[in-house]
Design a protein that fits this description.
five-stranded mixed sheet; binds 5'-O-[(R)-(carboxyoxy)(hydroxy)phosphoryl]adenosine; binds zinc ion; about 350 residues; single chain; alpha/beta
Length: about 350
């Protein structure tokens, strides 16, 4: 089956073409991502209408480039299914991809599936070369700029929310703390880069909700703790130099990772998960990848994280989510039935 994927939920315009023989035999034939990160950087976050305008400008070129790298000459003959992100995401941005996908499906008389961006992140794990067909149930830790969720997957169609953040997503907290430290956007990569040179024990920070009896998270208090720490340091005339920023980054990163890892392991044991899958933009964080792997292995649970290049938003994961959705016999594939759902849970 050859699937075309389209992603415009946030600040990446992306189109992919994948060839799927079975759930573990997936070939990526085309993968084009046009990032708007630089454009939004000056605003410190993604501006929805600006994102939509850029998607409109770029989507056709991204589409043409994906087709040509995949060697697709006859769209109608070669493409079996189109999948487009229909949520969650920014409304104006999502609409660009959906309209583009519907037009393609209508003119070429192709089946169209509205795919979940969240399931896409989860399925990015299937892109690992050595990925084994998983034994369900699986515990997913999905960490991005908009979400921090523990999702129990009992089969390819059954996803259940086990826990989530009560306030900021962990990626959002990385972005906000980066801004407090005067670093660039997005903040996650900047903080983890500085953290490598920092001492995580120099400025101890709290572990919010570590001992709460549920599997929920909270990260806004941690961001406020960094704000107060910076205020106190300034009052004491301590210079916020590169080393101080590195120590704060290391401490903040370790606090986030500690809570994420401990709660994921507890939830996995409680729900008898055979594997833990990490996904979402924050899954690019090397400390999180290494710590969760180590703790999962200690607990006798398999662990996987997506290949680095598929951790952030892309359309390969969307084509995959579309493919897995198509395995469900009840899945509607009529383009007229695809609607935007900006608040889709997963
Ligand atoms: O999944 P994604 O690309 O977009 C959303 O759907 O939100 O995730 C983007 C988020 C940003 O908040 C970014 O700061 C964070 O992922 N991120 C990281 C790292 N790389 C990206 N956070 C921590 N450490 C990283 N290395
Ligand atoms: Zn995402």
């Amino acid at each position: 089956m050859i699937v075309l994927g389209i992603e415009t939920s946030c600040d990446e315009t992306a189109v992919s073409i994948i060839e799927v023989k079975s759930p573990t035999e997936i070939k990526v034939r085309g993968n084009v991502v046009s990032s708007q990160v630089k454009l939004h950087a000056e605003f410190g976050g993604v501006v929805p209408n600006l994102a939509a305008r850029e998607h409109v400008k770029n989507i056709n070129a991204v589409f043409e480039s994906a087709l040509s790298t995949a060697g697709i000459r006859d769209f109608k003959k070669e493409i079996d299914l189109i999948a487009v992100t229909h949520g969650p995401g920014l409304g104006p941005a999502l609409l660009v991809g959906i309209t583009f996908a519907k037009t393609l499906a209508m003119t070429h008389e192709k089946p169209l599936i509205g795919a979940s961006h969240m399931k896409g992140h989860i399925f990015s794990n299937w892109l690992n070369e050595d990925f084994m067909e998983p034994q369900f149930p699986i515990m997913n830790l999905l960490v991005s700029g908009g979400h921090t969720e523990l999702i129990l997957m009992s089969n390819y169609e059954d996803f259940k929310l086990i826990g989530e953040t009560m306030d900021d997503a962990v990626g959002e907290a990385f972005d906000k703390v980066a801004r407090l430290l005067g670093l660039g956007y997005p903040g996650g990569p900047e903080i983890s880069r500085l953290a490598e040179k920092g001492d995580a024990k120099h400025f101890p920070l709290p572990r919010p909700m570590l001992h709460s009896k549920d599997f929920n998270f909270s990260f806004s208090g941690l961001k406020t703790a960094v704000l107060y720490l910076l205020r106190d340091l300034k009052e004491q005339n301590v210079e916020i130099d590169e080393q101080t920023k590195s120590d704060i980054s290391a401490s903040f990163q370790e606090a986030c990772v500690d809570v994420l890892v401990q709660k994921t392991i507890q939830a996995s044991i409680k729900h008898k998960a055979s594997a833990i899958l990490l996904s979402g933009g924050v899954s690019a964080n090397t400390l999180l990848r290494a710590s969760l792997k180590e703790s999962a292995e200690k607990a006798g649970i398999n662990f996987s994280c997506p290949p680095m290049k598929y951790t952030t938003d892309n359309a390969v994961m969307i084509a995959l989510a579309g493919y897995f959705a198509s395995l469900d016999k009840n899945q509607n594939t009529n383009w007229e039935m695809v609607d935007m759902d900006a608040n889709l849970s997963f």
